[in-house]
Amino acid sequence: xxxxxxxxxxxxxxxxxxxxxxxxxxxxxxxxxxxxxxxxxxxxxxxxxxxxxxxxxxxxxxxxxxxxxxxxxxxxxxxxxxxxxxxxxxxxxxxxxxxxxxxxxxxxxxxxxxxxxxxxxxxxxxxxxxxxxxxxxxxxxxxxxxxxxxxxxxxxxxxxxxxxxxxxxxxxxxxxxxxxxxxxxxxxxxxxxxxxxxxxxxxxxxxxxxxxxxxxxxxxxxxxxxxxxxxxxxxxxxxxxxxxxxxxxxxxxxxxxxxxxxxxxxxxxxxxxxxxxxxxxxxxxxxxxxxxxxxxxxxxxxxxxxxxxxxxxxxxxxxxxxxxxxxxxxxxxxxxxxxxxxxxxxxxxxxxxxxxxxxxxxxxxxxxxxxxxxxxxxxxxxxxxxxxxxxxxxxxxxxxxxxxxxxxxxxxxxxxxxxxxxxxxxxxxxxxxxxxxxxxxxxxxxxxxxxxxxxxxxx
Length: 459
Ligand code: ARG
Prior knowledge:
Helix content is 62%, strand content 6%. The chain has helices at 16-23, 26-29, 34-50, 60-78, 91-103, 105-109, 116-152, 172-197, 216-222, 232-267, 295-318, 330-355, 361-366, 374-383, 388-397, 407-412, 425-453; strands at residues 6-9, 12-15, 157-162, 165-171, 199-200, 227-228, 275-276, 358-359. A hairpin with a 2-residue loop joins strand 3 and strand 4. The radius of gyration is 29 Å and the shape is elongated. It folds into three domains: 6-112, Orthogonal Bundle (Fumarase C, Chain B, domain 1); 125-366, Fumarase/aspartase (Central domain) (Fumarase C, Chain A, domain 2), CATH 1.20.200.10; 370-413. By secondary structure, the chain is mostly helical. The strands form four sheets. Strands 1-2 form a two-stranded antiparallel ribbon. Strands 3-4 form a two-stranded antiparallel ribbon. The N and C termini lie far apart (58 Å). The longest helix has 37 residues, at 116-152. Helix 3 runs antiparallel to helix 4. The chain binds arginine (ARG). Arginine binds at residues 26, 90, 116-117, 120, 325, 327, 329-330, 333.
């Protein structure tokens, strides 16, 4: 191999091409991890300052100086003024370099007893916790928008379909709240991914521990994690797995959104015209002046495909990767970040679209051909004493004589739990409240831990 010039990095000289290839997009992607890595580093240095080690690895004053410098770095990153170079490789070495520039020898002692492997795993879990809380809030907001629409048009008749064929009387309330409840169900899956991420890998070092009395329980508590991951090798191996669990969880709201988008594309076609999407949510054609296209909904279908693809991508990367850290893991970062950004953007735009959705009552009622009432009619015959199968055949044999019934009456007649006239909107409101309280409590727990962590300890 013809050698290109070497580049000097924090960890030695590396061939420039090799450096560029191995660093990949980390200098850009890692900008989103800087603040989280600063918290992880603050916890690590605080733990070192409390370690029963003679002489002390960090005095309280030295610890405070490092934590103050970390806070300054996080603030620079938030203001878009922190740069990661290719020679830094990633945010972890960029932060160590900056600490050394600011604090000299103190900065050179920060990496005592840790590895970039537990460092990056910790930063990613902190980032992921925050992102998943944001995703859950956005899922709750969309569920709320759907429920508001459902409640406003609770008894507005809408043909219920199976195989896309007209099936039975239904309502706009039933249709819209079905997607709301779907999202609330999906939220449970995303919360499971949050709980999966909420254990602390820090202190596992390169997955094999260190011959120092590392206080892993302290590290977990300092960062607001539920508990430390017990086995240090598992702590390392759970990188990638945590991402896989998260991205596959995000597939669930995307699958729900994609079906909602498909329904909207269909039911806003001129041939149906059940709903109108606000004009500003549609795009026109460069040639056909009459066009208003439901591009947002179409792209949501595409984004769902993308997130499912990313989920497969992360899982495929992990399959048969040997235990312990492997650089392959670096490539799960971009897939995770893209899945989160895509899902969250889709949730936000759909929430706005649903907020502007307008039903067209005449069109919704006009779609009730007599056949839609066939099952209700058969059940009327059952009420008169006929066996259901006989009633079924009687109606089926005389479909052309089937009289249209009143759609509004048909909607009002289904009063049992969860049917068109049995929807419990108070239960849904309580469910939304519960989800909000839970995410707020999780966020407060983390914020309290970070506020405590960043305070000086020397007197
Ligand atoms: N940027 C790297 C990653 O994302 C950091 C860990 C590098 N560790 C190592 N042993 N080379 O995986």
